[in-house]
Specification:
Layout lengths: L30 E6 L4 H12 L3 E6 L2 H13 L6 E5 L5 H12 L3 E7 L14 H28 L3 E6 L12 H20 L4 E8 L5 H14 L3 H9 L11 H12 L10 E4 L9
Bound molecules: nicotinamide-adenine-dinucleotide (NAD).
């Protein structure tokens, strides 16, 4: 994204050449990957990357227009697999069940990528309870229920995996993001619970990154600037990338490639673990 005005957001774009190409017998049209948050950012890139590897992708989101864009993107890059849009709201239990049913009708449901999420920036004294509940519903309750409904299909298919989008905020915390921090620590707990119950046939893993150049991040820059009394430029350079040794944001396709690897046979010993790709953010300091 060389024309992106965000400093440091110049990583690889979502093109065929930048998608990790994995040779895996299960990366074929009869394998269905259900991807949430697939209308935008990391979810879109994950849906397209799995389709490019040959899977049939059930792409779900509340944003129907965004899903159409994801279908188009997969076609534009000549993906071998198809992307089927399944519109739905992850705060609705009936929708969650319907989404899994729709995915299972496309073939053998083997992979589930829980990516959908949202952010809200506010100090704890002012944090709206309804916003906290919404974030818990989308980022913890829905991944749990989707896994609950997908597990029987994965066992029936002879095995599968759940990949959960966590964050550096599932490893350490920052101020004014209490709900997000709690959700991301929680999803690592969910990941380990799924690994415990998967009997080795159904694996689970999480993906933790620092800042990725998506609408979720660009949308929070003005709020963080106001909360901290900084310019937007300073938020990006000092707050977001300040502790990272790698001085650019990840791009969505770089994160998508972690899901491609994590679902593949090359990751058969990745079960309950976390792919921490944070540019050194959480393990180092100056
Ligand atoms: P994004 O805003 O680009 O995409 C999030 C998607 O989730 C949107 O398409 C949105 O419509 C969907 N969504 C939200 N609420 C929904 C609901 N009720 N039902 C169905 N879909 C819903 O964000 P992104 O940056 O791609 O983030 C994706 C995930 O990655 C999130 O879980 C986020 O916490 C995580 N993450 C992001 C970053 C980052 O820097 N962008 C870093 C680490 C982790």
């Amino acid at each position: 994204m060389t024309d992106d005005p965000i400093p440091g957001a110049d990583g690889p774009e979502l093109t065929a050449a930048n998608v990790l190409d994995v040779d895996d017998d299960r990366y074929a049209a009869d394998s269905v990957a259900l991807v949430t948050g697939a209308a935008s950012g990391i979810g879109r890139a994950t849906a397209v990357a799995l389709a490019a590897n040959g899977c049939t992708v059930a792409a779900t989101d509340v944003d129907a227009d965004g899903l159409a864009g994801t279908v188009d993107r997969a076609a534009e890059i000549g993906a071998d697999g198809t992307v089927q849009p399944v519109e739905g709201d992850l705060t609705d239990d009936a929708d969650i069940e319907r989404i899994v049913d729709a995915a299972a009708q496309l073939g053998e449901l083997r992979f589930l990528a829980n990516v959908a999420g949202l952010q809200h920036v506010a100090p704890i004294e002012e944090f709206p309870a309804e916003q906290y509940d919404l974030m818990q519903a989308v980022m913890l309750r829905a991944p749990t229920l989707l896994s609950k409904h997908a597990f029987p299909h994965m066992r029936e298919a002879g095995g599968g995996a759940v990949g959960n989008m966590a964050s550096v905020h599932g490893h350490y915390t920052t101020s004014d993001k209490v709900a997000y921090n709690v959700c991301k620590f929680g999803i690592r707990g969910l990941t380990q619970s799924l690994a415990a119950e998967g009997d080795g046939d159904v694996r689970a893993f999480s993906v933790s990154t620092g800042y990725v150049s998506t609408p979720l991040v660009t949308g929070q820059i003005p709020d963080t600037a106001e909360q901290r009394g900084l310019t937007e430029q300073a938020v990006v350079e000092d707050v977001m990338l300040g502790q990272s040794r790698t001085k650019r944001m990840m791009s969505p396709v770089e994160v998508a490639n972690l899901f491609v690897f994590g679902f593949s046979e090359h990751a058969k010993h990745l079960n309950g673990g976390d792919l921490l790709f944070d540019g050194g953010m959480t393990g180092t300091y100056e």
